[in-house]
Design goal:
By secondary structure, the protein is an alpha+beta fold. Strands 4-3-2-1-5 form a five-stranded antiparallel sheet. It starts with a helix and ends with a helix. The model has no long low-confidence stretch (mean pLDDT 88).
Length: 95
């Protein structure tokens, strides 16, 4: 569960979640679980003209199966550390 533990380190940071229905939601990551279900607070829709009904929503729960992409803050990511952890996990699964 490398990615779950990685996302848990980003709790409290601002992320953008793009859904499979092309809705993009920007908000503060509150929690994430083993199915990559996401809870966001203080949300804003990136295209309010297309989704005006979402303007009244302040918090949301997003099921992991409807997520297309998650845009992370670049300054919060140590790509070298993440790549090393992914390699270690891959070699452990082979053994």
């Amino acid at each position: 569960m490398l990615f779950q533990s990685f996302f848990k380190t980003l709790v409290g940071k601002e992320v953008v979640v793009e859904l499979k229905n092309d809705l993009s939601i920007k908000g503060t990551l509150q929690s994430v679980d083993q199915f990559l279900n996401i809870k966001l607070t203080d949300i804003a829709v990136t295209d309010p003209e297309r989704y005006p009904h979402m303007m009244a929503v302040k918090n949301c729960f997003i099921r992991g199966s409807v997520v297309r992409y998650i845009q992370l803050p670049q300054d919060e990511i140590d790509t070298g550390l993440l790549q090393d952890a992914a390699r270690r996990e891959a070699t452990e699964k082979k053994q």
